[in-house]
Sequence to fold (269 residues):
Amino acid sequence: MTCRVSPLAYVHPGAELAEDVEVGPFCYIGPNVRIGPGTRLHNNVTLLENVILGSDNEVFPGTVIGGPPQDISYRGGETWVVIGDYNIIRECVTINRGTEKEEGVTRIGDHNYLMACCHVAHDCCLGNHIIMTNGVLLGGHVHVEDYAVISGGVGVHHFARVGKYSFVGGLSAVRHDVPPFMLVEGHPARPRCVNTVALKRHNFPQETIECLAEAHKLLYRTHVGLANAREILRAKGRLIPEVQYLLDFVEYQQHGRHGRGREAIRRAA
Fold:
């Protein structure tokens, strides 16, 4: 099967396209771009440079991937965007290359859905099965774990971390790390309850949901403190792996500044 490239598209001689890639009119594919099999670029998609785009992705008009990082300390080093497989990237999404402060890579995993006008800044790292609704803005160095859902118009502070199976309510200001399995919302966003809908949808046992609900109560309502919460949950036999992951996440969060564990990395850079 041959590559289908519109005669109205530009493909740099240094780009590598798999045989069955589809490139629509007025697309621009720059140097050091590699596109895997089954990927479709609709019209007016721009892949500037140093982009690896895996297989079976679909990228919609107006998207720009591989632009230089919007970081005033960047001095033109060779950095990358690496995107996995089976992602849907809707209209006018922007994904910037990394800086040399971490790995030099902005990374997106597999089976993610980035809706229109989202921005993924330099050095972000997204896992798998993530949904970012229209207009979500990720600051630099943000990490988003698997199965997180971020609703429309949310801004995430740089160096924040969004935990797995979490849900961020629309128009929230995420200034702190978002704990896994929790629903957060507000200005600033705060944990309100366990993300029960997602956990049930992904077949978590009722016992697991109840254990997480008790952990939420201890951490965010009665405020007994992390160490006390851990001992109470252990004594009740509720220190299951999901609860342990939540408590470890909160402990890491406290190592940083302003409720962001990854701020420690920023200070060390």
Summary: DSSP finds five helices and 28 strands in the chain. The chain has a mean pLDDT of 97. Residues 27 and 37 are 17 Å apart (CA to CA). The longest strand covers residues 189-194.
